[in-house]
Amino acid sequence: MYETLPLAGPARPSASEANEAIRHLVETWADGEWPSEAYEFLLGEWAAATREEVGAAACHS
């Protein structure tokens, strides 16, 4: 089992939190099969958070 972000309820992580989780996954990955499902999940979380943050910044401009 791969360690992912500790999410509390339906809250989405920030882009920086998702990025940190991706870094952690890459840095702690050992030889063997690449954890593609975990990576793809975290990448999706990062992309969604980035879109939300960019959209929020655009609304406040």
Task: Kindly describe this structure.
The protein is mainly alpha-helical and 61 residues long. The protein has a domain at 15-24 and 36-59. 62% of the residues lie in helices and 0% in strands. It contains 2 helices and no strands. It has helices at residues 15-28, 36-59. Helix 1 (15-28) runs antiparallel to helix 2 (36-59). The longest helix has 24 residues, at 36-59. It is elongated. The termini are far apart. The model has no long low-confidence stretch (mean pLDDT 82).
Helix content: 55-70%
Stretches where pLDDT is under 50 for at least 5 consecutive residues are: none
**How many alpha or pi helices?**
2
Average of per-residue pLDDT values = 82
User: C-alpha Rg, in Å?
Assistant: 13 Å
Largest sheet: none
Shape: elongated
Strand composition percent? under 5%
Elements, N to C (H/E):
HH
State the separation between the terminal residues, measured CA to CA: 42 Å
Structural class by SSE content: mainly alpha
Based on DSSP secondary structure assignment, what is the total number of beta strands?
Answer: 0
Which features does this protein show?
single chain, 61 residues, mainly alpha, 2 helices, elongated
Short description:
The protein is mostly helical and 61 residues long.
Helix and strand arrangement:
Blueprint: H1 15-28, H2 36-59
